[in-house]
Amino acid sequence: MELELLVSETFGLILLAGSSLILALLKAGCKIATLERFRTVNFGRKRREVVEITLNSAKQESPPYGRVALTLTLFGILLMLTLTHKLFFAVVISDSMYPTFQRGDMYLAQAIYINPKPGDIIMFRRPDVGLPVSHRVLRVVGDYIYTGGDASGPDLLPIKKQDVIAQAVMIGGKPIVIPKLGNYFILNAKQMRSIGPYGEEFLFYQKMIKAFKSYAIAIIVVCLSAYVYLELESYSYRKRIKK
Hints:
The protein is an alpha+beta fold. It folds into 2 domains: 2-85 and 209-236, no CATH class; 94-185, Umud Fragment, subunit A. The chain has helices spanning 2-27, 33-43, 47-59, 65-83, 189-195, 200-242; strands spanning 87-91, 106-110, 121-124, 133-141, 144-149, 153-154, 159-160, 164-168, 170-171, 174-175, 177-178. The strands form 2 sheets. Strands 1, 2, 3, 4, 5, 6, 7, 8 and 11 form a 9-stranded antiparallel β-sheet that branches. A hairpin with a 3-residue loop joins strand 5 (144-149) and strand 6 (153-154). It is elongated and about 70 Å long.
């Protein structure tokens, strides 16, 4: 459980680091081919109109303090949710939820507001299983939740609401899934027997993931600082040009 949460936390931080890096690069004037193609497809014939609107708004531009504050607040909230495990990617370690999930998939889960209802997918503790289980809610009776896997069928015993760790984020009734990425973080039974819960390889994985986490946080701080500097410098430069 500890290693899985650490992996999920680190993966979320890496996504935030990548987003902040892209934000800083775009502000620095770098062009990213994929984004440029998207911009061309969407604007196409209206590019001249968009340019004119942008130029007109630049003439009446106010300091970008609000935009900078909004960006930093958004990243700050996402960072806090990631570090407190309120929003994370959970690793699927079995095929009991096939075809919704397969072993090795990662799905987005949240522990901000948990209110399981039939059809929802939850992560919960079960006394007969060492790792958290991710199954679908079949029905809720008082404080008891009856669960089951899409492939394995109903679980033998219900769980209590306090056993629920998180709930899958659903869009249009479907969870947000990244296929197969979790395979890199799953140790099979043979590996677990050979290294034990505190073996050298386990500690190596733990240290390596913690190092990735530290680098991700550093990248986020550096890129957001660069973004703020470039925003303010760009505004200052435009003001000098107008004078």
